[in-house]
Amino acid sequence: MTTTTSTPATSALADEARGRSTFVRDTLTVFRRAMRISLRNPVWGVMGLLQPILYLSLFGPLLEPLAPALGATNAYQLFVPGLLVQLGMFGALFVGFGLIGEWRDGVIEAERVSPAPRSALVLGRVLRDVLVVLVQGIVLVAVAFLFGLEAPFWGIVLGVVTAALLAASFASFSYAVALNLKSEDALAPLMNGVALPLLLLSGILLPITAASAPAWLNTLSNLNPIKHVVSGIRAQFDGQIGTPTALWGSALTLALAAVGLWFGTRTFRREDG
Amino acid sequence: MIHARGLARTYKTRRGDVDAVRGVDLDVEAGEIVGFLGPNGAGKTTTLRMLTTLLAPTRGEATVAGADLRGDPGAVRRRIGYVAQSGSTSGEARAGEEVVDHAQLYGVHRAAAAARGRELFGQLELDGLWDRKCSTLSGGQRRRLDIVMGLIHTPRLVFLDEPTTGLDPQARANLWTHVRGLRDERGSTVFLTTHYLDEADALCDRILVIDHGTIVAEGTPEELKQQVSGDAVVLTASTASDAARVAAIAAQLPGASAPTVDGTLVEVRVPQGRTLLMGLLRTLDAEQLELDGVELRRPTLDDVFLTLTGRSLRDGEQPNPDPDAQDGAAA
Questions:
Q1: Which stretches does the entry tag as region Disordered (chain B) (predicted)?
Q2: How far is B162 from chain A (nearest CA, A)?
Q3: Neighboring chain A residues of B52 at a CB cutoff of 8 Å
Q4: Model ipTM?
Q5: Chain centre to alpha carbon of residue A244
Q6: CATH number for the B2-225+308-330 domain, one of 3.30.40.10, 3.40.50.300, 3.40.30.10, 1.40.20.10?
Q7: Which of chain B's residues have a Cβ under 8 Å away from the Cβ of A183?
Q8: By residue range, what is the domain housing residue A112?
Q9: Mean pLDDT across the stretch A145-157?
Q10: Tens digits of per-residue pLDDT, A4-20?
Q11: By percentage, how much of chain B surpasses pLDDT 90?
Q12: Which of B69, B106, B116 best probes binding to A when mutated, by most A CB atoms within 10 angstroms?
C-alpha cells in the first residue's frame, strides 16, 4: 500500500534489498542452512565417509582376479568409476526423506511464502547433496589409490565431477517425488523400484557388453542413460577424455541434471500456480 | 490492505469437485485487526493460503498489500508475513539460525536479522533459547518461534493461522498484547483465524464469519452479538407460581423473545437488555414480586456462531484443519 504511513523503516529496507538479483543469495542461504543441519548430525557424516571405504575394501578384492577377463589391466580403474556412479545415485536418491520431514515441520510452506525464487529453494538443497557426493567421491578415489588404482589426474577429476552432477539430477528428482508423495512409506519403494533396474542395467559392477551379455539384455542396457554415464567415466579414467564415449557420458549427465532441476523447481512452484 | 472479490477454490477429488471456498468477498483496511472465524472445514485455511500466494484461486481476484495476487505474487510475498498452523522451523535446526536464515530470504541482512530476532525473542519470552535445537522446545515455545519467523522481516500485513493454539493462558494473553502492539506501534494490519471466541472478542476490531465456503456475517464483535441474539435476562423467582407471573411481565418487554421457565428460573432474550433491566425490575417490584436473583448475560460470539452456522465453534476442535491440508497429495 503506497498510502501506508507507518510502515517501519526495516520493511522498506527489506524491499529495497530485493532490487538486485536474489537467486544466488537465496540459493546460498538455503545451501548454508541445509549444510549446517547435515554437519550437526555426526552419524550422517561418519556413515557418508565410511560407505565408499566399505565398498572398496569388502567388494574390491573380489574384482581383482576378474579384471583381465573384463579387458582391464587395473581392476580399480574399472571398478572405481562404477562406484562413483553408484555414489552419485544412492547418495542422492533418498534425500527426499529429509524433505518430507521438513515439509511436515512446515519449513517448505514457510519458504514458499517467502519471495525466494522456487529454483533457489531446490538448488540450495541440491548443492548440499552435490558437495557431499563430491567429498565422498574424493575420499573414495584417495582410498582407491591405496588399493592400487592407476588413472590420470584429469580423468579422475572429470569422473568425480560427473558423479557429482549425476547426484544433482537424482537429488532434484528425489525432492520432486518426495514433495509430490509427502510420505516416506511411498517414497522408499518407489525410489528402490527406480534405482534397482537402473543399477542392474548400468554395468556398474560388471560391464554389460555385446560379448558379455545376451543381445536383449545388452540392447536394454543401452537404453539406460546411467550405462553411458558409467562408460563415460571409465573412458575418463582410462585417459580418453576427448573421446565420443567420454563426451557422450558427460553430455548425458548434464542433461539429466538439467531435467532434474527443472522437475524439482516445477514441483516447488506448482501449488501457487 | 486486502480486497478480494469472488475468491474461490475447487479441489478435484476422485469423487468429484469439492468447493472448499465458494466465492469470498472481503475488505481489510490498513491498521485493522480482523478475525476470521468458522467451524472446521469452513474454508478458513484455504482462503488464507490463497491470500498468501500458496494456493492458486480457481476463480476470483484479490489485491493483497497493494499488489495483485495473480499478477505479482512476488510483491505480495515480500510484503506479508504468514504464520501457518503447521509450523515453520525444522526440529533439527537451531532456533536463532532458522530465524536469521528465514529473514535472509526476505533480503534482510544477517546482522539486522539477528538483532531483530533477539528483540522478538525477548518480546515473546523466548530469551535464552536462541541456540536451542528446535525439537527441544516446548509446544508453546515452538509456536512463539513460528510467530517470530512470521514477523522477522517486519511485514506490513500479517496473517496468523490459529496463532494461540497450544499456548497456555498467560502466553496467549502475552501474544494478544504483542499483536495489538504490531498494530498500535508499527501500524501493521493483522488478519487472523482463531477457534477461540474470547480471543476474537478481545483482540479483533472486526470479525468475518465463514461457513461452507462463503462469508455469512461480518462486523465488530458488538455488532455481531446485537444483530443475532440480544441479551439474556435471567430472573430467579422465589416460587414457581411467581415465576409464571414474572415470565408474563418479562414477555411484555419490547422485542422480547418468548420467556422460558424452568422451575423458578425465567429466561428471556431482549435486544439492549442493559437499558431495559431497570424498568423491568421496577415493574416487578410494583407487582410485589420478590426475586432471589437477577442476571444479565451478554451474548457470546458462540451464540452468534450457533445462530449463524447452526454449529458451535467448539464442535470438533481437533487439530485437523480444512480439507486442503492434504491437497498437495491429491494434486
A1: 312-331
A2: 14
A3: 113
A4: 0.83
A5: 23
A6: 3.40.50.300
A7: 329
A8: 22-270
A9: 89
A10: 444 444 444 444 444 44
A11: 35
A12: B106
